[in-house]
Amino acid sequence: MPIRPLHLLAGCFLAGLGLHASGGTGAYRLDWPHPGEVLTYRSCGCADACWVAEVRHRRTQALQARLRCDCETLFYEQPSAPARTGPLGSCEPIHLGGRKPEAIRERLEQFLHPRAGGAPGAARP
Length: 125
Prior knowledge:
Layout: H1 5-22, E1 28-30, E2 37-45, E3 50-57, E4 63-70, E5 73-77, E6 86-90, H2 92-95, H3 100-112, H4 114-117
Antiparallel strand pairs: 1-2, 2-3, 3-4, 4-5, 5-6
């Protein structure tokens, strides 16, 4: 059965809607002052309220930690310390104040490098 031009046009339109609806951005680096590690950020929708930030080993790309927001709730994951993994509450403290990249970095430092970026005792979710 031959493809009709109208069917082809409808298929292209629907495929375009799917790509547009997925939202998000490509990953890009955020400032991370710890040698041997890289902090990346990517948005996944909700007008940039859904996002994932990951710290990876620079050479091996092994995941060190992940901080993510699902539009409302903040989650932390650290493969080397599964007991620390879980929800942290609202994403609002990170979204407010106009300094989101810095707030993400500071929060991740509280877990991975407590002496460098966070107050003592702040490392426990």
